[in-house]
Amino acid sequence: MGGSGSLLPREALGEYQELTFLSKQEILLAYKRFRELLPREERESAGSARVPKSQILTLPELRANPFQHRICRVFSTSEDGDDSLSFEDFLDMLSVFSEAATSDIKSHYAFRIFDFDDDGILDRKDLEKLVNCLTGQGEGSRLSDAEMEQLIENILEESDIDKDGTINLSEFQHVISRSPDFASSFKIVL
Question: pLDDT above 90 covers what percent of the chain?
Fold first, then answer.
């Protein structure tokens, strides 16, 4: 069945339960799925291994997500900038996308995912990339320049409380708080 390396140490399991919104069963399933993404020779050391972004993106739960690359970027602690995930990065991602995570946590990470240039605000360029991700990149689905400009104006009109032409985290969270289905739709279930 595999050596002792194929099991998550009991102490680690308890610690992960305390630090995440995941149940014991969800953590064990996450560990199993994470190990399956690794090459066979690295599976015994899954606790210290990193899964390349290309492998993470093979997960059915992420494959169709238009923000898959940003999700990997936001949750990766890789110092190489390769967006690979450690098991703890993987758990953090699953925890934020779990049903048990709070709306505040979910909206904080959604903001980071939508902040394409990582500057702490959603500006017009971020909003344009966000809309393009949601509507698709193909010629037939792309908005015209006028439609895009009008949509961005509408978004800023609704969200930009201090009228500085950008959306900061608190403005974003204010908008999200008025969207009752946000928390239930911002999830990944393994």
Answer: 83
CA angle 9, 11, 15 (to 5 degrees): 115
Torsion of Cα atoms, 182 then 15 then 189 then 173, to 10°: 10
The C-alpha torsion from 171 through 172 and 178 to 179, rounded to 10°, is 170
Tokens 């390349």 correspond to what residue? Answer: 52
Average model confidence (pLDDT) across the chain: 93
Would you say 42 and 61 are in contact if contact means Cβ atoms under 8 Å apart? no
H runs (alpha helix) in the chain: 10-19, 24-37, 53-56, 60-63, 68-75, 87-96, 103-114, 124-135, 145-159, 169-177, 182-185
8 pLDDT more than 90:
no
Nearest to 121 by CA among 72, 161, 150: 161
* φ, ψ (nearest 5 deg) of residue 57: -70, -5
